[in-house]
Every structure is written in C-alpha cells, then in structure tokens.
Amino acid sequence: DGGITQSPKYLFRKEGQNVTLSCEQNLNHDAMYWYRQDPGQGLRLIYYSQIVNDFQKGDIAEGYSVSREKKESFPLTVTSAQKNPTAFYLCASSFLDWLGTEAFFGQGTRLTVV
Amino acid sequence: AQTVTQSQPEMSVQEAETVTLSCTYDTSESDYYLFWYKQPPSRQMILVIRQEAYKQQNATENRFSVNFQKAAKSFSLKISDSQLGDAAMYFCAYTYDYKLSFGAGTTVTVRA
Predict the structure, then answer these.
(1) Cβ–Cβ under 8 Å, residues B86 and B79
(2) B21 contacts in A (CB within 8 Å)?
(3) CB of A72 closer than 8 Å to CB of A18
(4) Is the pLDDT score of B15 beyond 90?
(5) Whole-angstrom Cα distance, residue B10 to residue B7?
(6) Is the pLDDT of residue A98 over 60?
(7) Of A92, A99, A108, which has the smallest distance from its Cβ to B43's Cβ?
(8) Within chain B, how many helices (H) and strands (E) appear?
(9) Model pLDDT, residue B1
(10) A63 CB near a chain B CB, below 8 Å?
(11) Would you call B70 helix, strand, or coil by DSSP?
C-alpha cells in the first residue's frame, strides 16, 4: 500500500544531543514537508523540499536541519540548538502542484527531551 | 506573511445536530486554495474538504460543507448530522506558493 511512514513513533532525547526523525514515502510525490505541532498553535512549517537535493526553510527552521538525497526520503534532524524541541512532528508529501493538491501526512513522531 | 485564524478553541455538538467552525485568513493573493483537515485522537491528518478561491460555489462533501466569503476572507466549515466519529480537532489551512499554513485548530466534541 502506498503511504508515508514516520519513525519512530516516540523518541526520547537528552538535552544537548542531536536526533534524527525519519520520513519515507512511496507515493512518488515530489514535494515533502516537515511540521511541528504544539498545543494551541496548530501546525508550523519547519522545512520543505520540492525536488531532490533542494529544500527551503519554513517559518521555524532555526535549530533544525534536513536533507533530500532521495525522492522517497526527507529526514529531519533536531539539533542541540533547538531551544524547546519537545513537540509532535508531522511529515507530509504531495505532488509538486501543491496548489490544491492534497497533502498526505504520516502518523507523526512524538519527541520528548529528558 | 499569510495567517490563518481559528477563533474557537473548542466546540460541542449534540449527535445528529449541526455545528459550524469559523476560520479567517489574511492574504494579498487572488488565487489560492483553502482546506479543512481533521485530526482524530489517532493524530492522523485527514483532508475533509477543499475550496479554490476562484470558484464562487461553496464546496460540499457529504455532510461537510463550507461557506466561503472571499471578500471577508472567511472560510467556515459546517458539519451536518454530526456523528460520534466526527469528534476530532479540525484545522483550517491555506496554501500558496507551495506553503501550507494552518490555523491553531478547533476541538470538536460530539455528545451522544
């Protein structure tokens, strides 16, 4: 079945450590996105990528990094520079004609800093 | 920057009745898309309905319909004949230039 897979579902990190969240899709989508969800703030865009080896900062990119070496994969690294990383992270993908095209979402990763 | 505002953090509706969720947005663009997404307790995001700004006719999907007022930059969602499975958080979203912006969400509770 086609879909978008995020792993792991739950992730714990010690302060000062970097951590990488995985996002893989087999929908042949060109565009991929990372969002952060906090209570009362909806979804905020971290990074997005329209083609392989290219990506753009979203509204809250500070403290995060991404790579897009393959069309199917768009991992997100939460670095130690991110001041408040505890949140729910959602990955999404769509065909390149984003305007009006439905975005498909993964099931999310809950990151907790301990 | 485009912003999306949902002014109702929570709404409650009796089963089989109707509830309307409000959404306003700010943009200087003339052509764009608006969406309503549903996020049930599983946290899986599901597209409920979409509306193109150039189309004056309000979109409808079964029990879900929108009231799109372009001049007022308003995009409300009406859920008719509410069912227990409609209980979820609902997000209004706006897209332009490959960026999808979301509102803060409205939690809908359905009373049996």
Answers:
(1) yes
(2) none
(3) no
(4) yes
(5) 9
(6) no
(7) A108
(8) 0, 12
(9) 58
(10) no
(11) coil
What is the reported pLDDT for A103?
Answer: 87
- Helix/strand/coil for A6: strand
Rg (CA), chain A: 13
Identify the CA nearest to B108 among candidates B39, B12, B41: B12
Instruction: Return the ∠ at Cα B109 (arms to A100 and B106), rounded to 5°.
Output: 40
Indicate the residue of B43, B52, B105 with minimum beta-carbon distance to A42: B105
| Cβ–Cβ under 8 Å, residues B61 and B54 | no
Nearest to A90 by CA among A44, A49, A40: A44
Buried b (16+ CB within 10 A) or exposed e, A11-23: bebeeeeebebbb
Structural tokens at position B64? 């879900």
Give the C-alpha separation, A29 to A80, whole Å: 30
**Is a pLDDT exceeding 80 seen at residue B98?**
no
Please tell me chain A's helix, strand, coil percentages from 3-state DSSP, rounded to the nearest 5: 0, 50, 50
Confidence band, pLDDT 50/70/90 cuts, at residue A24? very high
Q: Summarize the confidence of residues B71-75 as an average pLDDT.
A: 95
Residue B95: pLDDT above 90? no
Per-residue model confidence (pLDDT) at position A1:
65
| Residue type, position B1, single letter | A
> Do residue B50 and residue A98 have CB atoms under 8 angstroms apart?
no
> How many beta carbons lie within 10 A of that of residue A107, not counting itself?
16
CB A106 within 8 A of CB A33: no
